[in-house]
Amino acid sequence: MKSTLATLSLLATTTLAVPSATTFPAASGETAFPTAHIVSGSFDGEMLRFSRDPNTCRDQTETGEADAMFIVEPGGAISNAILSAAQAEGIHCRGACTLTNVWWEDVCEDAATFKQAAANATSRVVGGGARRAADKIFQFNGRGTVAVTDFYAEDYGKLVRSCGDCGANGGPRHVVVEGVVAKQGGVLCGINSNYEDTCTITGSCQNSGKSCDRYTGVEKGDGNSVKIGSGPDNYSCSVDGFTRTC
């Protein structure tokens, strides 16, 4: 399997590491913003439930950054936040970001979108969880690595998807999944093999045994991304300590 040193350095264990929580937390209070809240540096949500007012969710209709709950500048971080159903795009990370103990109660279009441009950039999702995602939870449009650790997913389409048909599409993109518990949903990663994407899954479970889907990605306007295979191939998709017992 092709991989980067950055990807390899994120692998710490081959045993199932149960997320810190698999029950969605109660909110400490409510707050709403009329526009996307821009985060530079670190933002602690203090376990408040965040909404957009007016609500920007249009189900699976593609919207954009302006309809997100948060926009995170490069190097920024969000922690201890609950996102309600009343928002469309969750979190947009313009560069590498860290999301710690963030919960999405009802994913609209996406929970978070990663747009980092640098091949050596790494965004991290640590703890937290998401549910009710009709399609994907995390959209990976940039380059580099997205690492999802100790996360809980329930009732979802895919955990992480490399963009299938972005403008200026390409790779490689590397997805690292560790200590994830995923129920009532699909694969933990969907990647574009033709762009040399990789997905490495360790110490995680998906209760239907769904690990990876492999696709051929395309440029926007050049047709549709096509699935070419499922499951580990020990080249672009690798699993270790993966089980369906959650």
UniProtKB/TrEMBL annotation:
<keyword id="KW-0732">Signal</keyword>
<dbReference type="GO" id="GO:0005576">
    <property type="term" value="C:extracellular region"/>
</dbReference>
<comment type="similarity">
    <text>Belongs to the polysaccharide lyase 3 family.</text>
</comment>
<keyword id="KW-0964">Secreted</keyword>
<dbReference type="InterPro" id="IPR004898">
    <property type="entry name" value="Pectate_lyase_PlyH/PlyE-like"/>
</dbReference>
<feature type="signal peptide">
    <location>
        <begin position="1"/>
        <end position="17"/>
    </location>
</feature>
<keyword id="KW-0456">Lyase</keyword>
<dbReference type="InterPro" id="IPR011050">
    <property type="entry name" value="Pectin_lyase_fold/virulence"/>
</dbReference>
<dbReference type="Pfam" id="PF03211">
    <property type="entry name" value="Pectate_lyase"/>
</dbReference>
<dbReference type="GO" id="GO:0030570">
    <property type="term" value="F:pectate lyase activity"/>
</dbReference>
<protein>
    <recommendedName>
        <fullName>Pectate lyase</fullName>
        <ecNumber>4.2.2.2</ecNumber>
    </recommendedName>
</protein>
<dbReference type="GO" id="GO:0045490">
    <property type="term" value="P:pectin catabolic process"/>
</dbReference>
<comment type="function">
    <text>Pectinolytic enzyme consist of four classes of enzymes: pectin lyase, polygalacturonase, pectin methylesterase and rhamnogalacturonase. Among pectinolytic enzymes, pectin lyase is the most important in depolymerization of pectin, since it cleaves internal glycosidic bonds of highly methylated pectins. Favors pectate, the anion, over pectin, the methyl ester.</text>
</comment>
<keyword id="KW-0106">Calcium</keyword>
<dbReference type="InterPro" id="IPR012334">
    <property type="entry name" value="Pectin_lyas_fold"/>
</dbReference>
